[in-house]
Amino acid sequence: METLTFRPHPFYALAKTAPVLLIAALVSILGYYIHPLFILPGIATCLYGWYRYFYICAIKYVLDAHTLQTSCGLFNKRIDSLALFRIKDYVITQSLLMRITGLMNMTLISTDMTNNTLTMYGIDYHPELVDQLGEAIRAARQNNKILELS
Question: What is the pTM of this model?
Answer without folding.
Answer: 0.85
